[in-house]
Amino acid sequence: MQKKRYRLLVDITPKQHMFLNNLPYGWKKQIFGALIDMIIEMTRQEGIKSLSSIISHNINLNNFFQKS
What we know:
Layout: H1 14-21, H2 27-46, H3 49-55, H4 61-67
C-alpha cells in the first residue's frame, strides 16, 4: 500500500526559478522537505508568530537554529 503524497504549488520569482533550476537532480524535494520540517519545529518552539518573522525577513532559519 502506497503512502498518500501531497504536493505544494507556489508562485516563485524568476530569480528563485533560476536558482532552483541550477540545483542537482533530486535536491529540490530534499531541500523543501527539510525547510518545511524546520519551519514546523520553529513554530512548535516559538509559536505561530514566528512565521511572521520569517515572512517579514526579521529572522531567518539560520539565525533561529543558531540559538537553539
